[in-house]
Amino acid sequence: MVLLLVIVGLISYYVYKSIIPPPPIPLPENVSEISPRIKLNDGRHLAYKELGFPKDKAKNKIIIVHGNGNSKDVDLYITQEMIDEFKIYFLFFDRAGYGESDPNPTRTLRTDTYDIEELADKLQIGPKFHVIGMSLGAYPVYGCLKYIPHRLSGASLVVPLINFWWSRVPQNLLNAAMKKLPIGFQLTLRVAHYSPWLLYWWMTQKWFPNSRNPKDTMTERDLELAEKHTKHSYIKESALRQGDYVSTQRDIIAGYGNWEFDPTELSNPFLDSKKGSVHMWCALEDKQISRDVLIYICDKLPWIKLHEVPDGGHYIIHEKRHFEAIIKAACS
């Protein structure tokens, strides 16, 4: 009996250690010397980076929301000519748990949205701003359209994520979109949605497929761009310095959890003033995001301007000509 209890105890301890994610890796004591940060009302800090025109003189104020596994140092083709032409002030920031921003243990789509609003207020960039979100980083942009539409001068969703549990998008479209993904990716999203408390164990266990081969979800050009950006300003180790769980895994849980709304229920934030626009960018060679789902959303919300990029993959925002087109549309 004693031996049995010992065995059960050891197994229970092993299971517990496997399921419970580790605490965040502490940021260095000189973190404020690495990056400027603002303190939020709940005590957390967000790290940020500013580029372009002074905010009090800028005609266009754009907040860039980075994607999964990325940071405020996302490598984009921002030229001085573009900044001068459109008088742009750019604000980049590390989302909760990324880079030098403190993690948020209760992070959700809603909290990420209000982080953006509070960051804008603390930096005094003005009452209106344009948000651009890429890939998984587009879910806070949906949140801005839902929760703080009065703060927007515009919004852009670049190859935005598809939550396969949206309530009003036809299930056959969502099922077809899911089936295009590698089985390991599908299983990871299902674990994140149905059993988020198991995601850390799922991402660290070796028994079942839980990840994807980049070649299965990226075009050849995507792979070239991915390799190029790891050699330049985007340093993955810095973006994920606090650990995968508080950054990338919490990202997946927030993006693919149960939303309080469906995108097709959104209202046009510029219906009365007509002084703003919303853009959705769909890459036709994208192996991760289904064109059919994005078209359905835009059909239901005709105030969203759909831009289809015939020769683009999931990394279109890192292509100079496509990024310039995204910025020009946002500033028009």
Automatic annotation (TrEMBL):
Keyword hit for Signal: yes
Residue span, AB hydrolase-1 domain: 62-320
Keywords, alphabetical: Signal
Lineage top rank: taxon: Eukaryota
Keyword Transmembrane helix: no
Family annotation (InterPro entries): AB_hydrolase_1, AB_hydrolase_fold
Signal peptide: 1-17
Pfam families the UniProt entry points to: Abhydrolase_1
Protein name: Esterase/lipase/thioesterase family protein
Protein source organism: Arabidopsis lyrata subsp. lyrata (Lyre-leaved rock-cress)
